[in-house]
DNA sequence: TTGTAAGCGTTATCAA
DNA sequence: TTGATAACGCTTACAA
C-alpha cells in the first residue's frame, strides 16, 4: 500500500486517520490524494486490530449479565435495557461486546475468571441479580471501569445506575391523596430487595407528605400474597375505611395479581368501589385493560444512562447522578374515593 | 504477568491458549498452574486485538445489522434471531460483538469503511435487508468469514442461512389437500422478494404433489391486495369451486389482512365456509384468535444455525446445509372443504 | 519442557 | 511536510 502510493507507512496512517478531522494541515494535498487513490484501488482498509493495539483503547464497551442476555422469554429479559444501551453506545461511537453465557454454561461460565473476560473491553456494564461481589470489586480495584445496572449500594465503590422508585412511589400516593383518598394500603411481598424497600419508603413518604398517617396496617406484608390477601381481608379493610390499594411490582407480578383477584372476588369494582395503584409496570399478560395507575420504569433511559456513566468512567471523568426518574402513568384504576356500600 | 509467574511471555501464551484443548502436553502441570494462578491474581486477560494481530483468533463473533440492532419495536426486531445467536455462541464459547449503529448514525456509520470494523472479530454475522454488496463481497474476497442471515443467493460467495419456505409452503398445501380441498388459491403480493418466490414455488409444488392443477387462477398476484381482493372476488371464486385460500406472510401482513377482511365481508365463516392458510406467522396484532393454519419461522434456530455456519467458516470447515426447516402450525383456520351454499 | 526472537499492521515520536 | 523507528501485546517457529 505504502509502496503503491510511493510514501511511507507512517504517511498513510497520517492521511487515513486525519479523515473527518479538519487537521489535514500536516499533509500536502497531493500526497493525500495519492494515498487516498491507492487505498481505494487496493480496497485497503486499516486493520482495526492493529489500530487498537497501537492506540491502547478499543472502542468496545462490555455488557455482562449474570443470566442469559437474551432469555427465550422476552418478558424477563434485558432487552428493553439493551435498546437504550445500544442507542447510547452507538451515539458515542462505541461497539458492544456481549459476554455470553454467564449462566448458560457458555464461553467462560466456569471459573471465577469468567469475569476477567470483560477486561477485553474498555469498560463493562453488569446486569443481573446475583453478582459475584469479589470478582466485581476486583475489577474496580484494578481501576477497570465498571457500572452496574440496578442499585448496588452494598457494593461499595461499584458505580451503578438505577430507577428512582422512591420518588415514583411517592408520586403515585400523592396522586391518590389528591383524588381524596385518606386510607391507602400498600401490598408488598416479604423480601428485602432494594426495589421493595425503596417503594415502601416512597409510599410512606407520600403518605406523610399528604398529611396522612401510615399506621400499623398501612403496609400489608405477606410472604405469600395469594394466601394472605383474601377477598375477606379486602372487604374488612374497605369496611374499615380503606379506599385505595397499591401493590409493588415484582418479577412475577404476584402482589398485583393477588390484589386484583381479591378485589374482584370481594365483588368490588375498580375504580368504582376502590382505587388501585401499581408501583411499576404490569406483567405482560395483564398489560391490556384496564391500564393500572402507577409508573413505568424507563428501561431505555436506564440503559442509556448506564452507558453514559460508563463512558464517563472510561474517559476518566466524574460520575453523574445515578438515579433515573420513572414516568407517572395516570392509568384507569384510580378515581375519587367511594364510601363503602 | 510473565514476571510474576517467573516464566516467559511465550509460556504464558502457550498455557492460556491451550485452554480447553486437550493438548496441554507441551507444558508441565506445575508451570501451568503457576501461570494460571498468576493470571488470576492479576486479573490478566490476553488482549484480543493483539491476539488477532498476531494472527490467531480472539473468540469473538461479530453481529452487524444494517438497521438498528435493537429497534424499539420488539415486533420488527432481530430479537428472536439474537436469542438463538446468543445461545449458540455461548454454547460454542464465543462472545459476541455488536457492531452498533449502522443506520443510527453510530460508531462507524459514516464511510464505506463502516463495515471494516467487523474485521476485529473472527467472523461476522450480517442481518438486514439493505446490504452494501460491494463492502460485503470485499470482506469475503479477503477471506474474512461472513454469514448472512436470510437468503442471499444474489451475492455470490456470501454464505447465508435461511428458512425453507418452499418445503413449509408445500406442507401447508399438502395439509389442505389431505383435508380434501381440490381448489386452493394463493394470495401474494406483487414483488419478487426471494421469500415470496419461494412460497409460490412451494405452493405450486404442493399442488402438483397432491395431483391438483395450478391453473391460471391459482395464484392471485396483486400489487395492492386490499384493492384487488374484494369480497365479490372471493365470492366468485368460492362459487367457482375454490374451498381454500392461503396468503403469504409479509412485513406488513397485508395479504393476510386483506384475505381475512374479504372473506369476512363476503359473509363467509372460517373454517366453516372456507379454509384459510397463512404461509408464515401472523402479525402481532392478529396473533390472538383464531390461530392461522400455516407455519412458523424458527427464528431461534435460524440464529443458531447462522452461528454454527459462521463458526464452521471461522474454523475453516465446510459449510453445512443453509436451509432451516419451518414448523408446521395446525392452527384453527382450516377444516374439511364445504360446498358453496 | 521452556526460552528467544521475529513478526503482525498500526500509531506516535522524533528527526530530517 | 515526510520518513525512520520504537512501541503495542500477542503467537509461533525454532533453539536450547
Overview of the molecule:
Chains A, B: It comes from Streptomyces endocoffeicus. The first copy, chain A, is elongated. The longest helix of chain A is centred in the middle third of the chain and has 16 residues. Chain A is 38% helix and 16% strand. Chain A is an alpha/beta fold and 341 residues long. Chain A has a six-stranded parallel sheet, sandwiched between helices. Chain A has a six-stranded mixed sheet with strand order 7-6-8-9-10-12, sandwiched between helices. In chain A, α5 crosses α12, α7 runs parallel beside α8 and α10 packs across α11. About 2% of the residues of chain A have low confidence. The interface between A and B is large, with 54 and 53 residues. β2 of chain A pairs antiparallel with β2 of chain B.
Notable traits:
homodimer; 341 residues; alpha/beta; six-stranded parallel beta sheet; six-stranded mixed beta sheet; 12 helices; 12 strands; 38% helix; 16% strand; DNA-binding
Write the layout of secondary structure elements.
Two copies of one chain form a homodimer.
Chain A: H1 2-5, H2 9-18, H3 29-42, H4 48-55, E1 60-65, H5 79-91, E2 95-99, E3 123-127, H6 133-141, E4 146-149, E5 159-163, H7 165-179, E6 184-189, H8 194-209, E7 219-222, H9 225-228, H10 231-239, E8 244-248, H11 254-265, E9 275-279, E10 293-296, H12 299-314, E11 323-324, E12 327-329
Parallel strand pairs in A: 1-2, 1-3, 3-4, 4-5, 5-11, 6-7, 6-8, 8-9, 9-10
Antiparallel strand pairs in A: 10-12
Chain A binds a DNA duplex (16 and 16 nucleotides) through residues 7-14, 17, 25-28, 31, 46-56.
